[in-house]
Structures are given as structure tokens and as C-alpha cells.
Amino acid sequence: MGDRNARKIAELVNKEGNNVCADCGLKNPEWASYNIGVFLCTSCATGHRRLGTHISKIKSLTLDKWDDSQVESIEDLGNDAAHAKYLQHVPECYRIPKHGDPNVLVEQWIRAKYERQEFIHVDKQTYTKGTMDGTLMKKARDENKYYPRKFVLSAQDNTLKYYNKENSKEPKSTITLSELNVSLAPSKLNQENSMQLSFITEGSTRHIYVMHENPEMLITWYLAIRSAKLSRLTVAYPSVDVTELVPYLTSDFALEGWLSKTGPNERDAYRKRWFILDDRKLMYHEGPMGISYAK
């Protein structure tokens, strides 16, 4: 019986639709959730394990023994059937993760699908409302400390504002959404739930760094900004299909790292600078956490 079930599992994982991870698309999955009915890579299987067995029951395709009921359960479902159930209403603004994307994005995608069931119950998609306000921890300009700052997002006003104090009447800064890029930055900031906000102000590209202790809230902010930007773009370009606008919402930096740079004079010494390739723009700072770059 064990050999028969092992052969059946091997057949199922090779079926079209089942031969990739249901959550990140990586080929040749090695795990499965038999009650949800999806095949998973090792990384996403870890995400399912964190959900708890009351939500997802996972097993190795080759290392664990499968009984008849478990095989029948996953045979009746599979990746395509699970997608039809759990991905009914994925908003266009949602960044669907790929293998290798930041863990916080992948884990919240998994939780959104199976734990919160956000794409079944549209009312749970709070990030699509066009407005959001709350507190994010913002990194100080000249020290590696984070301080609470109130942020207010408005798609209608085309702005993201932040205030130094909760009761401040005037914002410390007003960022125009059309000039804003947001990238998840866990490896750069050494903070899992963190983002880098880059925007143009007074002829310069400026960066600010924020984090939140709650990974769900961090991704909610990330998606709310993407949703607000998409709302603005659909108004500005009504004849353009929304799928063509999505790539312009946010983007990760193409490349970052140290290079040695010299000045314009022959005697200028080479100095290490942190370079960032952002789309078609190359900028540099004194270090990875530089805050501004003159155009």
C-alpha cells in the first residue's frame, strides 16, 4: 500500500499545474498540503507550517508515508482547484511573489490566501480603499535608531504625508505618489519588516526607511501605496489596460553595491561609494543608508 501511494503521489506532482509550487511558482515541488490540496517548495512549506495544522497539514512527497485518505484528498484537489477557490478576487495592485522574493512578502501572501482568505472575502482587502493612516517606525537621518511617525496616505490627494508627532497639524514631509517608489528592504536594513521609500523632492532623489513590528501591517502599507498609485494611473490613462499599468507601481532596485569613485580632477583619490541602479537612473551615496542624491 505504501508503494502504491508513493507512486500515486509521484504521478500527481507531475501533472500539469501541480509541477510547480502553488505559492511561488518554483518548479519541482517537494512538499504538499494535503487538506488544502497544493504542492509546495521547501520554503513555502515552511510558511504553511507556521500557519498551524488547523489550517494546513503538510507532508514531504518522498520522506513521509501517505495513507489512502491523504492521497485521495490531494488527488481531488490539486493546485488548479485550490487556486480557483483561494484566488477568486486578487486585486491588480497585489504583488504576487516569486521564489526568492523577500520572506515577509511570501509569508503574508500565504497567510492572505489560506488564513485570512482575503481573495475570497473582498471586504478584508483594506489596502484597496485609497486611504490609510497609522504609525510606522522611521529611521533617523544620522543614527541607526527608529522613531514612531504618523503616516497618512491619500490616493485622491496623490500624497503620502508623515508627521513628526501624532498631534502635529502640519506634515514634516509631503510625498507625491507619482514621484514615489517603494521597495521592501529586509536585507539592506537588517529588519525583516522594512521598506525603503524613494521620491523626488526639490530636484533630488531622497530615501527614507521605515519598519513595522507587525509583518501584516508592513505589507498592508506596501499594498496600499501600490493600490493608490494604480488608482491614479487608471485615471490618468483610462484607455490603457490595467495590466499594462501594474509594472509602473513599484520596483525593486536592479542592483546595489559598493564601487570606488574618483572626482573630476586627476589628483582626486578613489573613494568607496554605495551605488544604486534604479530603472534607468544610477545614483550613489556615502553608504547604503544614504538619504539623498542630487540629480
TrEMBL record:
It comes from the Eukaryota. GO terms for molecular function: GTPase activator activity; phosphatidylinositol bisphosphate binding; phosphatidylinositol-3,4,5-trisphosphate binding; zinc ion binding. Keywords: GTPase activation, Metal-binding, Zinc, Zinc-finger. Pfam families: ArfGap, PH. The keyword Lipid metabolism does not apply. Residues 129-230, 252-295 form the PH domain. Residues 6-127 form the Arf-GAP domain. One of its GO terms (cellular component) is cytoplasm. PANTHER family: ARF-GAP WITH DUAL PH DOMAIN-CONTAINING PROTEIN 1, ARF-GAP WITH DUAL PH DOMAIN-CONTAINING PROTEIN 1-LIKE PROTEIN. This is Uncharacterized protein. It comes from Meganyctiphanes norvegica (Northern krill).
